[in-house]
Recover the amino acids of this structure.
């Protein structure tokens, strides 16, 4: 709750600093009176503190307000966009796990070999390259040059591929590196050596004994990644013209549509808090030594 | 890559993706959309052949592949033209009722197929005149769902008939009488278009609390609408105003009056009517509008004018220029905006062509802080006085009460102007798709009519340095240059080039890049006294004196120029009755701007679109077009 409250303050302050919706809505020959009247209609003539109190009191009743531009309830607008972002985030998350974990395990097991270097190169590229550049390159190669998938927009299931890879690559790279380093450490532990000495098969040693204990750090990362994939998709959604929360936030910033911007950021914060909570709960199952 | 490998890779890739996404898609939610009810479509009552729909004049299908324009100054008009824009505003023309101008006949073939157009923004629907902000206000008539009384012709800079086919102006130049075509139906079953609809639309757009673009000039002119009969209405203004006619009855800018159905508004109420997609009288109707995603319009059967060749036009939002180009190149869209540097890439691809359209956007430099008025032209004192942004120490501002200081400031502004190599900017930044600009905020077609070679600004850095020295700054001076973004894809590059040219003549320029929206509150508050590079995406055929140069102190927006002289000339222009008088006044106005460089024109940037040649063979947009539209003029290849 404290986090959310602080976030409301920060978001409210920042949204007021970055622009004024009258700049978007009113024409250049608007009179000063028209400008001031419209400001009154939006409540901009009141002190910022009063505006915040009004905002927070409405928020307490579950009212996120109305979009200044669209004149629809923010909750309604968010409700329409959440599924699109959630689908993209989920697919990118699954991609990051399906790619990051096997490659991380492989890199740890084949430590110092070409497989390891290859996996680390994949991770380095994924984490070093700017997302928008990856997006444009993927669009150019797979959308334009090869013509295999749509370049952008949510058209059919194939249109998930490029944004999923773009969004999920960074997360996959992070997973890979964490899994690799954790697993390398765990594989040196005495209980693993004991298991091997007892004749337990290599597959069981790795996937049952070692990996489970190596998952604590990656799990924390995964939880935050999931929330981050939703919030961090602004660039990806903009480049791929994806009608989700990220592109909505971009539009809200461009148009100084405070209520939408506040709504999106509150929602993202909520996702982060929720993801943290879920990760904490999952710890209990992975490591019985952790008690509430 | 051999065929087998390519195919296998594709299969693996798609299969992998399918496994990942299958479950997600199973529960995928398609976004509900605002959808226009299909019912209540009235039977069209006007056929193209009926006597009430004047026939003739097929606009020439003239869109040619855009080629970089010659980097030369506009040529002087051979002979003084009539009133550059609308023929109607002069009392001379008004004395006789204007005969119904010609109209394009309906194209007999049935509209078929879908044209997909990428735009950088699909704004939000606002289907009430007083709720129409600038951008969507432009779209609903540019997309040809709503219509205006008159229309800028596609083949010449003149207004021609649209919803009204007869109009006249009384000899005093203060009463406009317009007659609407009979039998035109509002889409969605809202009945026949009548004079009452115009009266309601106009009064709603200028009422208290309206955010419509037209409010300033209409209130200044004291405009009143009176219904004469079912199809005839009269607009009276308190004194002649040469700009009023084209501003409110033409279709160039956002200020023009779009005809809404009064009945629709009364039936639905303001809130519902704002978001309701029914209505309009144009060749298309809305069927879908998802803000930030896509809008879909469909051809209306039996439209009284030129029938579209495409049944459906799907307008999709793609923020990124690179994304738009990729979608065009891959076949996902048929039309996309093309930034000049990418034009060659697009036109080199088989099946694509690049074409210019509309009015070029004006890129200019405002030397802000020239707040020298203490009262309005009507004698009302200005508050606050002085303006917060008035800083006489700024070299381009000077002390308003000291003629010598003002002369030095003028020299500084002139120095900054001749320091800019406009031709180089056109060639190197705009890839040739533009032309140097020498008159503030004046674009073709008006520019071609009024330009005189004496207004050409040479590139002369030596002269710039000399002027700066003469003005008392032998070591140059510091300046902050703000570049505002959001209007043109190359605005930052153009602003940086201007900064480099100024640096080259001894001005120590610092750059600040911010959005137009973030900058505007300080502009409105008259707080700024820096240099502002202001970009324009597309221009408009509206006379610049109607809005851009009429930024009097009572307006909210003012770029930093409150000086009496240009306003006095424009005020005088308002009441002129002949084209010769207007041209003479324009000479005086632009002589003043040329002499003072109170606004420094930089370049005019041509707007470009890339089109798929298998879908578009010709597309003659209205000569006043500031944005993509006029979809009924898209022609399919034979």
């Amino acid at each position: 709750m404290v986090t959310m409250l602080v976030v409301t303050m920060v978001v409210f302050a920042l949204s007021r600093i970055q622009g004024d919706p009258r700049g978007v809505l009113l024409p250049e020959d608007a009179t000063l009176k028209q400008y001031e009247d419209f400001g009154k209609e939006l409540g901009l003539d009141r002190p910022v503190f009063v505006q915040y109190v009004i905002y927070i009191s409405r928020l307490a009743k579950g009212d996120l307000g109305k979009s200044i531009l669209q004149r629809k309830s923010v909750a309604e607008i968010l409700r329409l966009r959440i599924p699109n972002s959630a689908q993209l985030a989920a697919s990118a998350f699954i991609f990051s796990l399906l790619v990051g974990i096997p490659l991380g395990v492989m890199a740890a097991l084949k430590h110092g070999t070409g497989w390891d270097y290859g996996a680390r190169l994949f991770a380095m590229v994924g984490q070093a390259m700017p997302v928008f550049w990856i997006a444009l390159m993927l669009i150019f190669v797979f959308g334009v040059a090869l013509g295999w998938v749509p370049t952008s927009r949510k058209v059919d299931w194939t249109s998930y591929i490029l944004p999923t890879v773009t969004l999920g690559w960074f997360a996959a790279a992070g997973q890979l590196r964490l899994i690799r380093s954790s697993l390398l450490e765990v594989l040196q532990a005495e209980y693993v050596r004991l298991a091997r000495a007892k004749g337990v098969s290599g597959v069981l040693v790795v996937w049952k004994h070692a990996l489970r204990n190596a998952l604590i750090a990656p799990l924390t990362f995964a939880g935050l990644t999931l929330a981050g994939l939703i919030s961090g998709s602004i660039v990806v959604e903009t480049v791929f013209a994806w009608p989700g929360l990220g592109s909505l936030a971009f539009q809200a910033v461009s148009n100084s549509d405070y209520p939408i911007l506040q709504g999106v950021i509150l929602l993202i914060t909520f996702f982060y808090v929720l993801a943290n909570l879920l990760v904490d709960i999952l710890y209990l199952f992975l490591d019985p030594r952790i008690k509430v | 890559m051999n065929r087998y490998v390519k195919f296998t890779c594709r299969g693996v890739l798609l299969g992998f993706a399918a496994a990942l996404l299958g479950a997600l898609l199973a529960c995928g939610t398609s976004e509900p959309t605002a959808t226009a009810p299909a019912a209540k479509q009235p039977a069209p009552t006007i056929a193209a052949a009926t006597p009430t729909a004047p026939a003739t004049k097929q606009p020439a299908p003239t869109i040619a592949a855009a080629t970089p324009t010659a980097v030369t100054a506009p040529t002087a008009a051979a002979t003084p033209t009539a009133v550059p824009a609308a023929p109607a505003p002069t009392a001379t023309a008004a004395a006789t009722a204007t005969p119904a101008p010609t109209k394009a006949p309906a194209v007999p073939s049935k509209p078929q197929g879908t044209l997909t157009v990428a735009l950088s923004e699909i704004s939000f629907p606002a289907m009430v005149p007083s709720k129409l902000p600038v951008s969507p206000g432009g779209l609903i008539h540019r997309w040809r769902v709503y219509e205006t009384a008159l229309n800028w012709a596609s083949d010449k800079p003149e207004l021609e008939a649209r919803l009204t086919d007869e109009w006249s102006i009384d000899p005093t130049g203060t009463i406009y009488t317009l007659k609407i075509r009979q039998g035109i139906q509002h889409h969605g079953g809202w009945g026949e278009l009548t004079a009452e609809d115009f009266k309601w639309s106009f009064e709603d757009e200028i009422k208290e609390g309206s955010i419509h673009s037209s409010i300033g000039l209409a209130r200044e002119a004291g405009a009143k609408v009176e219904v004469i009969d079912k199809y005839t209405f009269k607009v009276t203004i308190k004194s002649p105003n040469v700009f009023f006619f084209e501003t409110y009855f033409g279709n160039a800018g956002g200020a023009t009056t779009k005809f809404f159905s009064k009945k629709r508004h009364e039936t639905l109420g303001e809130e519902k009517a704002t978001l309701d997609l029914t209505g309009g009288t144009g060749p298309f109707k809305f069927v879908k509008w998802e803000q930030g995603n896509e809008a879909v319009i469909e051809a209306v059967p039996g439209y009284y004018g030129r029938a579209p060749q495409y049944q459906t036009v799907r307008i999709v939002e793609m923020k990124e220029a690179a994304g738009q180009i990729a979608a065009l190149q891959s076949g996902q869209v048929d039309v996309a905006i093309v930034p000049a540097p990418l034009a060659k890439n697009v036109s080199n691809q088989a099946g694509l062509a690049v074409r210019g359209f509309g009015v070029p956007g004006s890129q200019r430099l405002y030397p802000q802080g020239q707040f020298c008025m203490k009262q309005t032209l009507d004698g009302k004192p200005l508050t606050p006085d002085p303006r917060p942004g008035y800083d006489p120490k700024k070299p381009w501002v000077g002390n308003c009460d000291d003629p010598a200081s003002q002369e030095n400031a003028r020299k500084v502004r002139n120095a900054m102007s001749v320091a800019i190599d406009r031709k180089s900017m056109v060639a190197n930044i705009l890839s040739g798709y533009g032309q140097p600009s020498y008159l503030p905020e004046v674009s073709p077609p008006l520019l071609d009519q009024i330009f005189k070679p004496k207004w050409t600004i040479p590139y002369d850095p030596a002269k710039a340095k000399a002027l700066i020295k003469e003005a008392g700054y032998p070591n140059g001076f510091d300046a902050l240059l703000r570049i505002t973004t959001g209007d043109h894809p190359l605005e930052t590059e153009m602003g940086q080039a201007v900064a480099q040219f100024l640096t080259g003549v001894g001005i120590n320029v610092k750059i600040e890049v911010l959005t137009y929206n973030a900058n505007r509150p300080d502009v409105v508050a008259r707080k700024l006294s820096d240099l502002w590079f202001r970009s324009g995406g597309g221009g408009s055929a509206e006379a610049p004196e109607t809005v851009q140069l009429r930024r009097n102190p009572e307006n909210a927006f003012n770029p930093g120029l409150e000086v009496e002289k240009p306003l006095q000339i424009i005020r005088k222009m308002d009441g002129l009755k002949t084209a010769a008088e207007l041209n003479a006044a324009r000479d005086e106005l632009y002589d003043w701007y040329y002499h003072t460089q109170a606004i420094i024109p930089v370049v005019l940037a041509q707007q470009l679109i890339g089109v798929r040649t298998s879908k578009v063979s010709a597309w003659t947009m209205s000569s006043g077009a500031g944005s993509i539209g006029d979809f009924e003029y898209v022609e399919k290849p034979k």
In short: Chain A touches chain B through 64 residues (CB under 8 Å).
